[in-house]
Amino acid sequence: MIGRRDGALMRNNSSNQSLLKSRIAIAIAIGMFLGCIFAFFFPHGIFSSNSPHFDHNHLTRSISQVVSTSCESSDSLNMLKAEFVAASEKNAELKKQVNVLIEKLRLAEQGKDHAEKQVLVLGEPHKAGPFGTVQGLRTNPTVVPDDSVNPRLANILEKIAVGKELIVALANSNVKDMLEVWFKSIQKVGIPNYLVVALDDEIAKFCESNDVPVYKRDPDKGIDSVGKTGGNHAVSGLKFHILREFLQLGYSVLLSDVDIVYLQNPFHYLYRDSDVESMSDGHNNMTAYGYNDVFDEPAMGWARYAHTMRIWVYNSGFFYIRPTIPSIELLDRVANRLSRGNAWDQAVFNEELFFPSHPGYDGLYASRRTMDFYLFMNSKVLFKTVRKNANLRKIKPVIVHINYHPDKLPRMHAVVEFYVNGKQDALSSFPDGSE
Ligand SMILES: *[C@@H]1O[C@H](CO)[C@@H](O)[C@H](O)[C@H]1NC(C)=O
């Protein structure tokens, strides 16, 4: 093809020369004409920056806008999320505050009622009212708080206590595993006002690492040696000594052993009308609340029946004590007797609470209230009665105290499984008593 065309050009060389020139002239003319037209219609050129279709700046702006809009929207989404989280936290915080306020209101009303009775009894002397209307004083007035007794503890309590009351437990490393079940149950219920009195450094650290409010006492030789190495009963005796400061600072204390599982907030179930409000070692109405136990002595004939007053002991591992003079006197009397001999603190606690004055002896007149033995349940009630009774199984106790059994930890876990996790057979494998 190329060869042929070349050949044609060569062949027509001379005759086409003029035709070629005129064609070039025409092409130039057309080119100039088109140039003029373009110059007229597009004075700034086809790719002018002003052209709306090819505005690079605009395009870049748009792209960057598109990009930034999606960035901004994820930014604002994150901001919304953060605001939502903050609002939910605020909401939870407010709910907590509402609960605390409701609690305080209830406390205030209970307190007002008690105060009115105090004024009635302790105020101006007056005549007794009509039959059935007179009432003695159970709710003794509280002491004036004395922060100078222990300013450091006063500081801690101010932060932790709700309505001037809190749960207090003493613990050393011997009870670490139980302590963990104890505070986890408290945290799960959402009780804010509790404190561990750490008797050694290991427990203090253990509490700190678990967000458990802890108080390490100032060194005190006599107490510290018992606290560090003491067994169950020895440590139990310490609490009467240590509790005194709490009461002097004006706080009511719900003293708690650590072999206890919390299922509800105990502060919602207190009467607060007595110096001491205690759980019972009793296991039914009679043994827990007291009864007339008739002792039979046939040789006496007509007078063979001797009536005796009986009540199963108060459990000195779980009681609520108000900051009153009789309460502090009780602590002093028990601590004093325990320091003098090898007595069991629970026996001494009960003797001081219940024995009346007699020749050579002035009884303590502290007012007492026995807690509901189904709500503040000991492990005898649970394992001997409640777990075998379909109706009683439905009751949700406030606390369960594994006081009747030596295999405390597994039974505590079982209580959590049964009451918290709803595992119906969690209690089944244990014998009623210890084997
Ligand atoms: C135990 O006492 C409560 C009231 O304190 C009463 O409702 C209940 O019926 C009593 N139970 C028995 C078995 O007597």
- Rg (C-alpha, Å): 43 Å
Rounded mean pLDDT is 86
Q: What proportion of the residues is helical, as a percent range?
A: 40-55%
Count up the helices. 13
Domain Nucleotide-diphospho-sugar transferase: 191-409
Protein name: Glycosyltransferase
Coiled coil: 77-111
GO molecular function, one term: glycosyltransferase activity
Summary keywords:
disordered N terminus, seven-stranded mixed beta sheet, binds 2-acetamido-2-deoxy-beta-D-glucopyranose, 12 strands, Spore Coat Polysaccharide Biosynthesis Protein SpsA, Chain A, 49% helix, alpha/beta, 13 helices, three-stranded mixed beta sheet, 435 residues
Question: How would you characterize this protein structure?
Answer:
- The chain is built from 13 helices and 12 strands.
- With about 425 residues, the protein is of the alpha/beta class.
- The strands form 3 sheets. Strands 3-2-1-4-9-6-10 form a 7-stranded mixed β-sheet, sandwiched between helices.
- Helix 5 (about 175-190) runs parallel beside helix 13, helix 8 runs antiparallel to helix 10 (about 325-340) and helix 10 (about 325-340) crosses helix 11.
- It is elongated, with a radius of gyration of 43 Å.
- Bound molecules: 2-acetamido-2-deoxy-beta-D-glucopyranose.
